[in-house]
Amino acid sequence: MSYKNILLVDDDIDDAEIFKMAVESIDSKIKIVIEDNALKSLNKLKAASKLPEIIFLDYYMPYLDGSEFLKLIREVKGLKKIPVVLYSGQSGAKIKEVIKKFKDVQFLEKKANFRDIVDSLKEIINS
């Protein structure tokens, strides 16, 4: 499957812009929506008529962290099947707990090198 409709939830503007450029370098036809607030994003998802095919979620967010977002999204019938990838610069104990708790969640560490970001995203987007 190749994802063509992506939601990125990340409050770091620079990281979000790099992510967007990396996705566009993989396939310029991919539609990417960027939200900088997980709580607002969740509310928009609940009301959306067209849902993303995959969500990339920064773990460390204000108002609602990655674990809280996952718990709430998995409680909503129309949203629980959307694949989620935790996208974080850290892979510490909290992240590992979340991945263990939500077994269907993938993890992608934010990379410093643009080519590494593209390669990692390509594996997920084209899987």
Explain how this protein is built.
The chain has helices at residues 13-26, 38-47, 66-73, 93-101, 114-125, and strands spanning 5-9, 31-35, 54-57, 84-88, 106-109. By secondary structure, it is an alpha/beta fold. Strands 2-1-3-4-5 form a five-stranded parallel beta sheet. Strand 3 (54-57), helix 3 (66-73) and strand 4 form a beta-alpha-beta unit. Helix 1 (13-26) packs across helix 5 (114-125). The N and C termini lie close together (5 Å).
Write the layout of secondary structure elements.
Layout: E1 5-9, H1 13-26, E2 31-35, H2 38-47, E3 54-57, H3 66-73, E4 84-88, H4 93-101, E5 106-109, H5 114-125
Parallel strand pairs: 1-2, 1-3, 3-4, 4-5
Helix pairs in contact: 1-5
